[in-house]
Design goal:
This protein is an all-alpha fold and about 525 residues long. Helix 4 packs across helix 5 and helix 12 packs antiparallel against helix 13. It is globular. The N terminus and C terminus are likely disordered.
Length: about 525
């Protein structure tokens, strides 16, 4: 591939990533508004713990079916059918997959609704001896379970749109979830008891709205699915073969987070909520940067592998890794340093106490230590899935999960008699994610499909220098501004905005002084 072609390809990836990132940023900002309202209206007590657990279960399964294993298996196969050039074959594949996936999801959803007490018993071990929490969680699950079917079919529609280069619509869709939950929190929750019940209704409404929103775009592309049940279709069989191991491999981090939630039910009341809000903040840069970049490169990597373009494949991965490091490292550092000011500014109002904020800030700092690893997992795993290699991520995922469980035992329940509680759960997840990313990278190197590009050492030195400078400025300003708890919302917001601007300016300026220029982001073969 020539330098001009490489620049054009990387420019296209950068532009697509910017589109997805901007839409995701809008969604995440509204998500912060949503979480602010949740904290204001339901706090971090027993009702909040029950809702967050009930919402996390279908969300976890959704990430397996929609954003995780299914997308990673479906997109490469769809790319193969597109490369073959038969529009009829592509439409036939979409119809068969829609029928098989929809039927499977519908069955799982019905089982969850009917067996809600069993689901609660599995995911909320600590609620067995608390009839109120157990019953409330069970009731909430019956409302949130249908969200699994609705949002997974939305993810299926989004995977089709992404494969054909329409990234903006799927990236915008999560905004609608936040709009529904904000509306439920503000307008409905004051009229029901408990208030968290309104949020469960909002989740169900959001699933309907999100799926309905994407269908007209598929209709315009003449790709509206007409579900057909055909488990023997070659494409369906291939997707299933790829999807089964990927169910575990791509979602190890989500499985670890779910294990955290289960174990958190054994800890003091509020632990589930503390982890939820810290996890939500750590997911902001993960979604805006990590998932956005991984979403954009998967179709490109799949096509490059199909066309046997090994050099292009490596350049695409190299560009993605550098972008993750460039954006993820300062984001992780800023979250760690500014954990408490951010949480105070966003959530410490009405029913949310300073103690809740303090506990959430500790787990946010722990999560931030693994943020870059979370982002790299998304990108590096795409290198395997685009090659239809599902076994390697599974093997690595098993190792990471075992390490996570061991770390949970050490950090949460022992640590020489002094457990770290919910902070230990977050720290264990960060440690296992770091190991997962390292093993994925080593595997790609051994396969010979990805090697760090030239001058990466110079890039890393600039990155570290800029991050250290940013941290120094943030710490210095924090020492001078010490009234966060006593300030009102406007004072907190203005000071936090000032911190963010100062940190971003310092980071960008130091990168510039170290020689990094915008054109280096467009051509991954030139560092």
């Amino acid at each position: 591939m020539s330098d001009i072609q490489a620049t054009q390809t990387s420019h296209k990836l950068l532009k697509s990533s910017a589109v997805v990132s901007s839409m995701t940023m809008l969604s995440r900002v509204l998500g912060l508004v949503r979480d602010n309202i949740l904290f204001r209206y339901i706090g971090a007590g027993a009702d909040a713990d029950a809702f967050f657990l009930a919402f996390k279960i279908p969300n976890f399964l959704r990430r397996l079916f929609a954003e995780g294993a299914f997308a990673q298996a479906f997109v490469p196969v769809l790319s193969e059918y597109r490369e073959a050039g038969s529009v009829a074959a592509v439409k036939e594949l979409i119809d068969r997959v829609a029928g098989c996936l929809g039927a499977s999801l519908l069955l799982v959803t019905v089982l969850m609704v009917v067996g809600a007490p069993v689901v609660t018993g599995v995911f909320a071990l600590g609620y067995w001896n608390d009839p109120y929490k157990f019953g409330l969680t069970t009731d909430f699950i019956r409302f949130t379970a249908p969200y699994l079917f609705l949002i997974s079919m939305t993810g299926f529609a989004g995977a089709i749109l992404n494969s054909f280069g329409y990234f903006a619509v799927p990236a915008f869709t999560p905004v609608l979830l936040n709009v529904c939950l904000i509306s439920a929190g503000v307008f409905v929750s004051p009229m029901v008891d408990p208030p968290a019940l309104a949020l469960a209704w909002g989740v169900l409404a959001a699933g309907i709205v999100q799926l309905t929103f994407q269908l007209p775009f598929l209709l315009k592309m003449e790709l509206m699915p007409r579900p057909r049940m055909d488990w023997h279709h070659p494409g369906v069989k291939k997707i299933l073969k790829l999807m089964v191991p990927a169910l575990f491999g791509v979602s190890v981090s989500q499985i670890n987070l779910t294990l955290d939630t289960i174990l958190a039910t054994l800890l003091p009341t509020g632990s589930v909520s503390w982890l939820y809000f810290s996890d939500r903040l750590s997911e902001l840069p993960l979604g805006v940067f990590g998932i956005a970049i991984a979403t954009v490169i998967l179709p490109s990597l799949s096509r490059q592998h199909t066309s046997d373009s090994g050099k292009d494949f490596g350049l695409t991965l190299d560009w993605a890794v550098r972008m993750v490091c460039l954006l993820g490292v300062p984001a992780a550092a800023a979250l760690c340093v500014l954990a408490q000011p951010i949480l105070l500014t966003l959530f410490q109002y009405n029913r949310a106490t300073v103690a809740d904020i303090t506990m959430s800030s500790y787990s946010l700092q722990a999560y931030s230590l693994g943020l870059v690893a979370f982002m790299l997992i998304k990108v590096l795993a795409s290198g395997y899935f685009s090659r239809q290699d599902m076994k390697t991520p599974v093997r690595i995922g098993v190792i990471a999960m075992v390490v996570n469980m061991v770390c949970n035992a050490v950090f949460v329940f022992s640590l020489i008699g002094y457990g770290l509680g919910h902070v230990g759960l977050a720290l264990a997840t960060a440690a296992s994610a770091t190991l997962n990313a390292a093993l994925l990278y080593r595997g790609l190197r051994r396969l010979g499909v990805y090697h760090v590009g030239p001058h990466f050492g110079r890039f890393a030195l600039a990155l570290v220098s800029a991050t250290v400078a940013m941290i120094a400025v943030l710490v210095l300003l924090l020492d001078q501004w010490g009234g966060w708890v006593d300030w009102g919302w406007w004072q907190r917001s203005l000071h936090l905005a000032g911190l963010c601007f100062a940190g971003l300016f310092t980071y960008a300026a130091t990168l510039w002084l170290c020689g990094l220029r915008p054109q280096h982001l467009k051509a991954p073969h030139r560092a």
